[in-house]
Amino acid sequence: MNLQALDYINKNCEEILEQASNDNNVNEAMIKGVAKFAVANGYEKLSPNQKFHFDETIRPLIEDVQCSGYTHELEEVHQECSSTLPDDRLVEYYQNDGAYCDSCQGQNDADAHTKATFMRD
Ligand SMILES: [Zn+2]
Q: Is 76 exposed, middle or buried (0-12, 13-18, 19+ CB in 10 A)?
């Protein structure tokens, strides 16, 4: 769980919380309140009821988030990827509208390198 990522969502993309609230059929304002409280005070300070909503609606946004998958630069084929993102990449995920797992990142770096070499020749 990455509360930094949640902080980022609270400040920059609340619509993600709204969407998650709709998906789970819970009140948006309540979820936003729980999200802000958790960032400010920590998960442990939530009431049992708030923890329940946090676990149901908010936690999936900031834990075990699926890799965006990889699009090969030249082939433009999007590969689905079932890996989960490391916690420390979640802020980046929300900043950039997607992020790679280590494996896809490695593939991307390799491609970038190939491309750079190709351009140079
Ligand atoms: Zn991946």
A: exposed
Q: Could you give the CA distance from residue 98 to residue 39 in angstroms, rounded to a whole number? A: 22
Residue 36: φ, ψ to 5°: -65, -40
pLDDT tens for residues 56-110?
999 999 999 999 998 877 777 788 899 999 999 999 999 998 999 999 999 888 8
Q: How far is the CA of 69 from the centre of ligand 1 (A)?
A: 5
For residue range 4-25, list pLDDT tens digits in order.
999 999 999 999 999 999 999 9
Q: Which amino acid is at 65?
A: V
CA of 103 to the centre of ligand 1 (A): 6
